[in-house]
Design a protein that fits this description.
It is built from 15 helices and 18 strands. By secondary structure, it is of the alpha+beta class. Helix 6 (160-166) packs across helix 7, helix 10 packs across helix 12 and helix 11 (337-346) runs parallel beside helix 12 (358-369). It is elongated, with a radius of gyration of 29 Å.
């Protein structure tokens, strides 16, 4: 394929050719470094300028050139490694004419290695005085202009590699995310949980209400789904006696894209035998505050225009009480479906055919009047049985189930249950889901008879919870769109 190059790209390719003619590989080899930019700057930041006269400390670093100020026989340039920037001073007297000429041919974006003496300029900037200069990689494309970077947001996500080079905040988020996940893993491990892996490919839609991605298994000649949840395999492990299990993994839902949703995202689900809804609330609050203290170092976050305070105790309120606070309507009272539908009509709430049940109507009122008002961390519990097919019914009022959702900033962050372990009840719930599918609910669950059989062997009473890891990372990094916390989000075709 014939390509057209800009003038800058042609000049850089010519420089790469010249480097090769000098007997060097323009695209480099292994380089041993012993230091990183941030560590050097932190170690020497408080050392007075005059003290460096008697010091012989050296460092070897490598990174991408981000700034050059050429000044005849001596120059300054800045390189960037994964920890940040550090300034380099280079002189023809220190490295010799050949290496200095090599440096002078360098462009912003090139990757180089530097060994030298640690010093501090008169302006107080920790600097490495270059004694050995090594060309490593010639950048054939110029970087975007320093102060604007990639101004097209879509291009930032498409060319994340350039965004990471130019955007310090993007690098901060990229490095923060795995630290948060590692903190979650340590938190769960310390509570006696075992991290496991379950299948990504499945033949049934279970564990969530979502439309799937469909693929095909050639050997068996069957269509399969990419998983939409982690739930049922993990519960099988409770039956098998593992008692406390969790998984952090990708799930796939064939749905729209917006600032809070990506078709593939990271989900964590955890199940604890002999626990319940209250246990999941306590664990969740403790996990969030642990991340806040141990990873980020603060308890208050500015997110989506709200100041969020994670200091506990967090509010706990039932769905019906929350609706009553906003509308005055008490859905705990006995009510016929006709009465509920009349309320929908009075409040201009449309109801689809598969939503014509009291439970669905309660949820519609919640979504219209309550959801976006739950700004500070709130555990909302007591969902109607119709919208919670995998949850144990409340022993005092079987119209509702022992389930909660965690809301922060008006958005759902977690979904938890006192798990349903009655196989007869579970089968009836699955059958109700099929009836909803016949009425047009494309997200209804399949019947998983193997799971019913597993429950018939006996699953201990348990609490279970699912966390959207991407949204959690959005909060802790104070990002308003999911695309900022996923390195390679799904993008529309150009």
């Amino acid at each position: 394929m014939e390509r057209e190059f800009t003038e800058q790209e042609l000049v850089r390719r010519e420089k790469a050719k010249n480097i090769r003619e000098m007997g060097m590989d323009p695209f480099g080899h292994k380089f041993e470094r012993d230091s990183f930019a941030a560590d050097i700057k932190d170690k020497y930041k408080d050392v007075p300028h005059d003290d460096f006269e008697n010091m012989t400390d050296t460092a070897t670093v490598a990174g991408r050139i981000m700034f050059i100020r050429k000044m005849g026989k001596a120059s300054f340039f800045t390189i960037n490694d994964k920890t940040g920037d550090i300034q380099i001073y280079i002189s023809i007297n220190d490295v010799g004419e050949e290496k200095y000429e090599l440096f002078k041919s360098a462009d912003i974006g090139d990757i180089v290695g530097v060994s030298g003496k640690v010093m501090k300029t008169r302006t107080g900037e920790v600097t490495i005085k270059c004694l050995e200069y090594t060309h490593l990689v010639k950048a054939l494309k110029p970087l975007p202009e320093k102060f604007h970077g990639l101004t097209d947001i879509e291009e930032r996500y498409r060319r994340r590699y350039v965004d990471l080079i130019m955007n310090e905040d993007s690098r901060r988020v990229a490095f923060m995310r795995p630290k948060i996940i590692r903190c979650i893993q340590n938190f769960m491990d310390n509570r006696g949980f075992t991290e496991v892996e379950t299948p990504v490919l499945t033949t049934l839609l279970t564990g969530a209400s979502a439309r799937p991605f469909v693929t095909h298994h050639n050997t068996q000649d069957i269509d399969m789904y990419l998983r939409i949840a982690l739930e049922l395999p993990l519960k099988r492990l409770l039956v098998g006696g593992m008692e406390a299990v969790y998984e952090i993994g990708r799930v796939f839902r064939n749905e729209g894209m917006d600032p809070k949703h990506n078709p593939e995202f990271t989900l964590m689900e955890a199940y604890l035998a002999y626990s319940d809804l209250e246990g999941m609330m306590d664990m969740t609050e403790a996990m969030y505050t642990t991340i806040a203290k141990d990873v980020v170092g603060k308890m208050t976050y500015n997110w989506c225009g709200n100041e969020i305070n994670l200091e506990g105790p967090w509010k706990r309120i039932s769905m019906t009480d929350a609706i009553k606070e906003k509308t005055g309507i008490d859905f705990k009272k006995e009510m016929t479906l006709d009465e509920a539908l009349k309320l929908c009509e009075e409040h201009h709430i449309p109801v689809e055919e598969h939503q014509k049940s009291l439970g669905h109507i309660i949820n519609l009122f919640f979504e219209k009047y309550v959801e976006e008002t739950l700004i500070q961390p709130t555990f909302l519990y007591g969902h109607p049985v119709e919208i919670s097919p995998l949850t144990k019914k409340n022993k005092d009022d079987p119209r509702f189930v022992d389930r909660f959702e965690l809301f922060i900033g008006g958005k759902e962050f977690a979904n938890a249950y006192t798990e349903l372990n009655d196989p007869t009840d579970q089968l009836e719930r699955f059958e109700e889901q099929l009836k909803e599918r016949d009425k047009g609910n494309e997200e209804a669950n399949d019947i998983d008879m193997d799971f019913i059989e597993a429950l018939e062997y006996g699953m201990p009473p348990a609490g279970g919870i699912g966390y959207g890891i991407d949204r959690l990372v959005m909060l802790f990094t104070e990002q308003e769109t999911i695309r900022e916390v996923i390195l390679f989000p799904t993008m529309k075709q150009k």
